[in-house]
């Protein structure tokens, strides 16, 4: 059997200058080609998990392990993780005024190439144009400054575009659906589906607050996170149950640590 | 080629252009300043009597004025001034042809990395080596159009009336202590005249360099853009590293006549022991447009406030600047706009970056005289701090004597954010490059106005300066 893409074992983590763990023993395995939805109420630790996987310096892992394709992810800096194939689609992407999306992405692509093997400007433009066509995006988008003055929907589409260009092995999508109207949600979902179709081995961890996006992006597994742990796992029927009943029925499982 | 090896061998953490070419001056004055020195300079340049008189009077004014108490710290400057040479002349002759330029000076150009194209093909390369123009060429087509692009000395010699009509009228001797000093000992610089209606498409470029220890550099530039004419002047400076403190005090005077357009672009990258005190001023007439594009890197202290005096109706003045203050550096820069006629407009855009113990100050004046009805001015100054220790401050002076004036002022201070760094790094970009990207993006609105090769050079210089800012 193929090696799992991501293995998380008994992961505990906290905000750097804080005393209390936010993640209190997360266990999760993502196989290549699978889409996992991670649901849960506000403050359950979903976004913290996403940031810890991506290597945010503001969080400290207190115990447990994270393996990516068998490698110890926790020993790598954020940029190394990205080059290894981890991608985080941000809930709140930062604005970088004065830096165009095209320039930013070319720098990111070249960071993956060996010295002297950088993609030239024209070859990169071709790749970028192709990915934008795939996601039905207008060419002019690439000439805009990264997230500078973008609407919520544009920011999320920019995340999906970056994912398309960087071709990660694992995409962690942190509430990519939040703050989107139905049109924007469909566009973003179309993007994610296009990418999973194009790369059969792409693993996705889709973090969401609402079932809404799961009507467009079909998960193979659904997990519920509460109080820093995954308390329930199942298939799409679990998402339906959450939609109908909320999280209350899981309070006991969450409290029973 | 061994020479190239020497260039690449220069460590990136050291000042990039910190090499020294052995100098062979023809004339070298004794250090310090005196009436005798001033007479020697004038005699050596074979100047008319009025210029000697002008210089001597300026010397008196200089000596009567106290050191400025505002801006940067000038306490050690007096000692410096006693030690510097106020005049050096490396060669007797002006060079007209590239073949005549001595190998040693060509080597200097080589080390500076001035592209071949810039040295030869780009018309009107006036390079200042020590205190004199050594190389000066002008495309024939310009000469046919009547454009003058000369050394300031030749301007005085060959166009005495035009020269005298404007010289020291924009920056009078008594304007400030350092303008007076420059007036007494000026040497080198450019004289530019663009006749009525002539549009000069290719930028006029002057690349010059200070290259002798303890030598003061007092370049003087006079530019006259006649009615309806258009031109762009580009000046770049870079200086070698020396242990003793050094001093640069230039005066740039510009007249932009009715309906004319002019842009003056400069990137100064002085070594970190340099006092750089420059007076740059323009007079802008009716319907004319003047733009200063100013990049300040290096130096120990820079005090420089390019100015636009808008004296004709609908005149427009624009000042765009980028300053980088690294460890131990103080960039006290900004701009001055004076509205003295109706419906005049101005824009100041200032971007500063500070790192380590570096400090950048924005100092600006917006003055609107009574009667300058409908004047509009907008000031935007943005400061970026790369760490916790660097410092920035803003000194905007606004004097409005006209109640129909509309003035906007916006200042921002930002620190390179952890979230920005993490975002870029999460795409595989390492921390140093992520920091550089944020800085490049920050200066982009001004840098994009630069000629391409200068924009690239500026980015490269800032990246070199930033080495070690991460970690």
Overall pLDDT of chain B: 81
How do the SSEs of chain A run, as a string of H and E?
A: EEEHEEHEEHHEHEHEEEHH
CATH architecture of chain A: 3-Layer(aba) Sandwich
Structural class of chain A: alpha/beta
What is the tally of beta strands of chain B? 24
Query: From the alpha-carbon coordinates, what is the Rg of chain B to the nearest angstrom?
Result: 22 Å
User: Strand sequence of the main sheet of chain A, in spatial order?
Assistant: 6-9-10-3-11-12
CATH class of chain A: Alpha Beta
Major sheet of chain A: 6 strands, mixed
- End-to-end Cα distance of chain B, whole Å, is 36 Å
Largest β sheet strand count, sense and barrel closure of chain B: 12 strands, mixed
Write down the Rg of chain A: 18 Å
CATH superfamily of chain A: P-loop containing nucleotide triphosphate hydrolases
- What is the count of β-strands of chain A? 12
Low-confidence stretches of chain B: 1-19, 90-96, 117-136, 208-216, 239-243
Output mean pLDDT of chain A. 92
The CATH topology of chain A turns out to be Rossmann fold
Assign the structural class of chain B, choosing from mainly alpha, mainly beta, alpha/beta, alpha+beta, or little secondary structure.
alpha/beta
Tally the helices of chain A: what do you get?
A: 8
List keywords for this structure.
heterodimer, A: 257 residues, alpha/beta, Rossmann fold, six-stranded mixed sheet, four-stranded antiparallel sheet, 12 strands, globular, B: 471 residues, 2 domains, twelve-stranded mixed sheet, 13 helices, 35% strand, disordered N terminus
């Amino acid at each position: 059997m193929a090696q799992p893409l991501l293995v998380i074992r008994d992961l505990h983590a906290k905000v750097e200058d804080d005393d209390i763990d936010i993640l209190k023993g997360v266990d999760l395995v993502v196989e290549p080609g699978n889409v996992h939805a991670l649901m849960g109420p506000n403050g359950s630790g979903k976004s913290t998990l996403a940031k810890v996987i991506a290597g945010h310096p503001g969080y400290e892992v207190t115990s447990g392990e994270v393996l990516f394709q068998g490698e110890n992810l926790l020993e790598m800096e954020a940029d190394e993780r990205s080059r290894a194939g981890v991608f985080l689609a941000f809930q709140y992407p930062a604005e970088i005024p004065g830096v165009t999306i095209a320039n930013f992405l070319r720098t990111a692509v070249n960071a993956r190439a060996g010295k002297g093997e950088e993609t030239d400007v024209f070859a990169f433009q071709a790749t970028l144009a192709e990915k934008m066509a795939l996601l039905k995006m207008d060419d002019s988008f690439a000439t805009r400054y990264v997230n500078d003055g973008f609407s919520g929907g544009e920011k999320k589409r920019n995340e999906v575009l970056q994912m398309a260009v960087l071709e990660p092995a694992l995409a962690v999508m942190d509430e990519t659906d939040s703050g989107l109207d139905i049109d924007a949600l469909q566009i973003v979902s179309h993007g994610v589906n296009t990418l999973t179709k194009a790369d059969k081995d792409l693993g996705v961890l889709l973090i969401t607050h609402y079932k809404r996006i799961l009507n467009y992006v079909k998960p193979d597994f659904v997990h519920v996170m509460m109080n820093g742990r995954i308390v329930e796992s199942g298939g799409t029927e679990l998402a339906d149950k959450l939609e109908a009943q909320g999280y209350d029925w899981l309070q006991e499982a969450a409290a029973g640590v | 080629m061994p020479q190239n090896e020497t260039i690449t061998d220069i460590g990136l953490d050291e000042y990039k252009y910190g090499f020294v070419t052995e100098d062979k001056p023809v004339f070298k004055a004794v250090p310090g300043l005196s009436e005798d020195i001033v007479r020697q300079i004038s005699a050596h340049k074979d100047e008319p009597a009025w210029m000697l008189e002008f210089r001597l009077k300026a010397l008196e004014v200089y000596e009567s004025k106290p050191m400025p108490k505002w801006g940067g710290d000038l306490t050690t400057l007096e000692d410096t001034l006693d030690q510097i040479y106020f005049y050096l002349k490396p060669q007797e002759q002006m060079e007209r042809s590239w073949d005549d330029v001595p190998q040693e000076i060509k080597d200097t150009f080589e080390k500076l990395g001035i592209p071949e194209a810039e040295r030869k093909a780009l018309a009107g390369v006036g390079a200042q080596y020590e205190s004199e123009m050594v190389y000066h060429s002008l495309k024939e087509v310009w000469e046919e159009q009547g454009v003058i692009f000369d050394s300031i000395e030749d301007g005085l010699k060959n166009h005495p009336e035009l020269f005298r009509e404007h010289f020291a009228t924009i920056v009078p001797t008594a304007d400030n202590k350092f303008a007076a000093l420059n007036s007494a000992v000026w040497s080198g610089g450019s004289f530019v005249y663009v006749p009525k209606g002539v549009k000069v498409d290719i930028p006029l470029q002057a690349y010059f360099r200070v290259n002798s220890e303890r030598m003061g550099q007092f370049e003087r530039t006079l530019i006259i853009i006649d009615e309806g004419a258009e031109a762009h002047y580009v000046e770049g400076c870079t200086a070698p590293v020396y242990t003793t403190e050094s001093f640069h005090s230039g005066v740039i005077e510009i007249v932009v006549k009715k309906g004319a357009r002019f842009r003056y672009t400069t990137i100064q990258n002085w070594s970190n022991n340099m006092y750089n005190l420059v007076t740059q001023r323009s007079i802008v007439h009716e319907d004319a447009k003047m733009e200063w594009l100013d990049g300040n890197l290096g130096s120990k202290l820079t005090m420089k406030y390019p100015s636009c005096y808008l004296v004709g109706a609908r005149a427009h003045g624009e000042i765009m600047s980028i300053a980088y203050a690294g460890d131990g550096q103080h960039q006290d820069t900004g701009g001055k706009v004076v509205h003295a006629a109706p419906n005049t407009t101005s824009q100041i855009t200032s971007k500063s970056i500070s790192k380590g113990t570096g400090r950048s100050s924005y100092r600006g004046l917006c003055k609107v005289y009574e009667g300058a009805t409908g004047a509009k001015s907008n000031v935007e100054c943005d400061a970026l701090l790369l760490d916790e220790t660097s410092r920035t401050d803003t000194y905007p002076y606004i004097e409005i004597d006209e109640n129909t004036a509309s003035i906007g002022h916006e200042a921002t201070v930002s620190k390179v954010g952890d979230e920005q760094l993490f975002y870029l790094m999460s795409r595989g970009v390492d921390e140093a490059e992520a920091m550089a990207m944020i800085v490049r993006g920050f200066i982009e609105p001004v840098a994009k106005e630069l000629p391409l090769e200068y924009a690239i050079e500026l980015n490269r210089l800032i990246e070199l300066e930033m080495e070690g800012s991460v970690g």
